[in-house]
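Pilot study result, target chain (286 residues):
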Amino acid sequence: MQQRRIGNLTVGAIGLGAMPLSTKADRPSHDDGVAVVHAALDAGVTLVDTADAYSRDEAEFGHNESLVADALRSYGPGAADVLVATKGGHTRHGTDWELDGSPAYLRRACEASLRRLGVDAIGLYQFHRPDPATPWEDSMGALRALADDGLVRAVGISNADIAQIDVARSILGEALVSVQNQFSPGWRGSADELAHCAQHGLAFLPWSPFGGVGAAGSLGSSSPAFAELADELGVSVYRVTLAWHLAQSDVVVPIPGASRVQSVVDSAAAADVVLTPDQLARLDAA
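Predicted structure:
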């Protein structure tokens, strides 16, 4: 598999977005979820993206982190090479998603994630989403304190615009290594943020690269140019889509979600699909 850099770490060019393993109403069993993570690692994936809020509801907050930790503990040799990226700042009230970006909450959330993941320091800790009730600078200062205190090895931000990225850079310095924003064939609203990350050497982790859990199944019909090229190459439209993501910049590490072994194996194989300039131009123009 191709490799990419996140800060001073090298990871596989395709990551695993573990959200569907915990949030879906028809999610896989615990053992099946572990099997998906194991299959991803077998296929060369070395970045697993999770979050404390990835759960069905408030009652099982932290479910996805615990599942990922179980999967890594049971994998054996090689698990130590996996970068686990988690997030804090989203809360759950019943099944609703709410926000808390206050410094006090972020420290409590980070400490709880450390316990669930069973680690002394989180490899990549990301601020899940800006909280209108908390100044962005205060949230960034809280992340800087977590890094300075050794609770996290590197910091990322998510759902941020260019101005917020630059404020984060000024406060976090070299601790800031990544930005995770939505980006897909049908939603390219973060193209400027992607280019900004490339300019400043920050990894860009597109979330929902297939358009989201509800839209992934219709990717072929919603993105016909991608489906046509997939047919020409004899691969799935998902492989072509991820190859298109990778071709945007060397800083891009897409994190497709998967709830089946077959899906994650197919996604990992996208790192071996190299698009020609003409093929890439077709997709960019679609």
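One observation from the pilot: The first strand starts at residue 3 and ends at 6. A full batch analysis is planned for the follow-on phase.
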